[in-house]
Specification:
single chain; alpha+beta; Lipocalin; 2 domains; 8-stranded antiparallel barrel; 8-stranded antiparallel β-barrel; 37% strand; disordered N terminus; plastid; transit peptide; PAP/fibrillin_dom; PAP
Amino acid sequence: MAVGAAVLGFPPLISRRSMLSYPRAWPVSSKHFGRRLQLHPILASLVEEQREVSFIEPEMALVNALIGIQGRGFSASAQQLKEVERAVETLEKVKGIPDPTNSNLIEGCWQLMFTTKPGTASPIQRTFVGVNSFKIFQEVYLRTNDPRVTNIVQFSDQIGELKVEAAATIKDGKRILFRFDRAAFTFKILPFKVPYPVPFRLLGDEAKGWLDTTYLSASGIIRISRGNKGTTFVLQKKLEPRQKLLLAVSSGEKIADVIDEVISSRQNNVIADLEALEGEWKLVWSSQASDESWQVATANGLKGLQIVKKNGYLENLVTPFPGFRFCANGFIVKSDATKFKATINSGAYLTGSIRFPFDIKTSYSMELLYIDEKIRITRQNEDILLIHLRTSNK
């Protein structure tokens, strides 16, 4: 069973190894963006009643640990991996639905959010799983005349998808046995499917494997599974709004709609203090592309990192290429309940330990729309929306 864990990835041509407390928040009402969210059909079961998604505290700890991790674990830092591992182990000790394979809750469409041991993956496998813009799903249907586990890589709504299917058998209340038997690409521009080039019938035991479900939430929203190669997978049927936002940023689709949902997910307005902004924040999306010079874009916080320290000390930092950085320094002060003013009064080019100052002075307003320990959404100068991810604590 050399490819057991590949049930969440792909058969041997791609890899013979395994593949694959709500935070405090300060929301304010947002402008309605006026566009209706349109989703690929495969996502329908994932987003039904998204606003009603709720998690028990240990599940929320796992969701928080996953926020900001790129490539479903392929680009995670050691600290991020440690936080996810701790959250997974906690849930496995808490235990969820007993005998999960005998529960109807295991059936349906699951989205892969995280996988461990990415270093064991093949180059082709990394191409699929590590790309943020691709969405990876697993469909589980065990109570039919043809029980199946199907893995799906959705490249985009415009391009198409890859579907890899396996005949499935329930071994016990925890384990599913499977055998890959068919696969194909579906491209939007073609009226026919393109076979996936794997001779399943000739692979023998190489096309077989198993998957244990070690945690299935009582809500049927979160599943943790482990393959026979020891790989851990975290999957969800429904996503918390912040997860949806980061997926939208990765795909570049319907970002404004999901921003509105994230902001609306918190009902009580709380006045934000300057202390809430402290930390290191990485800009992951802006509603306005900056075609200005690196110096101006850095000063206006439209690229790179923004570091807010105690007493409102502000530093915007951009690294256009290794070994060379632009930085702009100034202060940020609170001007209203959820509004701030940033003033930049100096700048410098940095290379190694050498600093070359340059004159730059500018100021801009910031309206805080949403913030927690992971994500910050602001409106700058009343028209530019920015999404930041926290990369370090205060």
